[in-house]
Design goal:
single chain; Rossmann fold; alpha/beta; binds 1,4-dihydronicotinamide adenine dinucleotide; ten-stranded mixed sheet; binds magnesium ion; Isopropylmalate Dehydrogenase; globular; about 375 residues; two-stranded antiparallel sheet
Length: about 375
């Protein structure tokens, strides 16, 4: 008998609800025993409360074994301000991505994205692709330290600390904007180590560091230096590095030259979307945000507003995210059963959503996978 888990359930908005409902059909069918605790997150809560990730949801996440998250809508600063309810306007509220905040607040420092071409998927770029991306999840250019307009104090510091900054010294605060790329030793080391530990545990041969250390010398230089130090502790695993721009080309040309990729936040985000497209697109991209205490699993796609409420999108990404959650909880047999059922339905080719060239609905795909268990 497996234990009864407490699972945070955060559908979000847009297609988030549909794909989460679909994943539930499969979790129930595989006999996963859980109490699901709902958490509010997303655009509606920004508009009505001025907070897309209310404190009550953070409290839920601190008190569950793991969580599933669907998708949310995010909009640029100006649109966010305009859509705030009248009573909240002009109160200095600033929109920040609730996903980035969730990752930082819960210290979900690993973003794990398995990239697997299931045989027979007509949307595969090539058959046989099987990669894993480890993306640093709490810092780098997504640290959230940004200035616009740039305060005089910041501008003064930059002017004295760098000769290269001289051309900017004449600018006034709202002539430019600054987003800080911040990479710590601790943050870099723990993601690199997670990638190597995973390679050892799963019989992977090689870990590739994705960076731009030749140009972005301070931050990426530190990341690469730490990568090389950690790599020397894992002599059985091959280690190399590639520039972020070059690897987008190499991945398309020779996807079989890569195995495990590890990258700072932004590069990891970019590379994992590219990889998702090589195995069928966003309808297949799943992701785990993993910390020491809790983990939140999600499809990598967003809220796809144009398809919201139509039962049209592919729920496989979210079903594979649920499979990752089962694995993380140690429910390895159930995880394997879900993955086997997904693989069978894809290979049979009878039930296909629009992105696979078919007409099946979100629910029909979920039910087919549930029946294949
Ligand atoms: P998106 O991922 O929502 O959708 C882009 C396109 O990908 C869709 O129009 C659709 O053609 C396809 N697609 C997405 N999910 C699919 C699925 N399950 N099955 C089949 N096809 C699928 O990205 P978009 O349109 O750039 O952003 C929409 C909203 O989502 C924005 O507000 C954005 O900020 C937000 N977003 C949220 C994310 C999250 O919640 N993790 C991630 C990315 C974007
Ligand atoms: Mg992304």
């Amino acid at each position: 008998m497996s234990r009864n888990y407490r699972i945070g359930w955060l559908p979000g908005d847009g297609i988030g609800w549909e794909v989460c409902d679909a994943a539930r059909i499969v979790l129930d069918a595989v006999g996963f025993s859980a109490e699901y605790v709902h958490g509010d997150i997303g655009w509606d809560y920004w508009c009505s409360e001025g907070d897309a990730l209310p404190q009550r949801t953070i409290d839920v996440l601190h008190n569950v074994d793991a969580a599933m998250f669907g998708a949310i809508t995010s909009k640029p600063v100006k649109a966010a301000e305009e859509e705030l309810e009248a009573k909240l306007k002009c109160k200095g509220l600033v929109y920040r991505s609730p996903i980035v905040r969730m990752r930082q607040l819960l210290d979900l420092y690993i973003c794990l994205r398995p990239i697997r071409a299931y045989p027979g998927n007509p949307a595969n770029y090539k058959e046989g692709i099987n990669l894993v991306v480890f993306r640093e999840n709490t810092e780098d250019l997504y640290a959230g330290v940004e200035f616009f307009p740039v305060p005089q104090a910041v501008s003064d510091v930059l002017a004295v600390s760098s000769k290269n900054f001289a051309p900017f010294a004449q600018l006034s605060g709202d002539d430019y904007a600054i987003s800080c790329k911040i990479n710590t030793r601790k943050g870099s080391e723990r993601i690199v180590r997670a990638a190597f530990d995973y390679a050892v545990k799963h019989g992977r041969k090689k870990v590739t560091c994705v960076d731009k250390a030749n140009v972005v010398r301070a931050t990426d230089g530190l990341f690469l230096e730490i990568f090389r130090t950690v790599a020397s502790e894992y002599p059985s695993i091959q280690a190399d590095n590639a520039n972020i721009d070059a690897i987008t080309m190499w991945l398309l040309k020779n996807p079989f030259n890569y195995d495990v990729l590890v990258a700072p936040n932004l590069y990891g985000d970019i590379v994992s979307d590219l990889c998702a497209q090589m195995v069928g697109g966003l309808g297949f991209g799943c992701s785990g945000n993993i910390g020491a205490k809790v983990a939140v699993f999600e499809p990598t796609h967003g809220s796809a507003p144009k398809y919201s409420g139509q039962q049209k999108v592919n729920p496989i990404a979210t079903i594979l995210a649920a499979k990752m959650m089962l694995e993380w909880l140690g429910e390895t047999q159930k995880a394997a059963a879900v993955e086997g059922a997904v693989a069978r339905i894809i290979a049979e080719g009878k039930v296909r959503t629009y992105d696979m060239g078919g007409t099946a609905t979100t629910q029909q795909m979920a039910s087919a996978i549930a029946s294949a268990l």
